[in-house]
Amino acid sequence: MGTHVAEYMEMLEEEDPTKYEAHFAKFIAAGVNGGGVADMYSKAHESIKKNPEHKPKKKEEVKNVRKGKMIDCAGKTYQRNVKLTLKQRKEKVKQKIARAQAKMLAAAEEELTQAKTDLDQTNKEILGLHETETDLHESCDYILKNFFVRQQARSAEIDALGEAKAILSGMK
Fold first, then answer.
1. Cα–Cα dist 150/75, whole Å
2. Which of 28, 55, 118, 156 is most buried, by CB atoms within 10 Å?
3. Non-local CB neighbours of 108 within 8 Å, separated by 6+ positions
């Protein structure tokens, strides 16, 4: 009896000691390991066979004493909130909704502020690009305006260099 439990305990003890300690904490506290489980079950069966009559335990009379939100019960004290009325519950829901809306509004305002900042940054970049474009157009216009004049001047230079080369090489 209990061999499957003993095998499981031994397997867990080898593979996952933390899980073993969590699952079998009471067995460990009682000093029972995987090998002692079968003996524990045998002793329990023997004691039941000796005296099979069930004797229920006496129930203790426990009286709860309430002092506002605090309740004293068998030497223990715990807190229990008073039940809210329908009107109070509805008001509580309205307050939660108002807080959620305020939170969403604050997030939206922050997002709007960030968007405006991004827009201003983008507009500044566009102005900078426009100024660069204007400068490039001016320099390109100057080059295009003087292109034919410079082309004729270079043609004249090439012709003059050809004549100079011919003179120097003795052709003329």
1. 108
2. 28
3. none
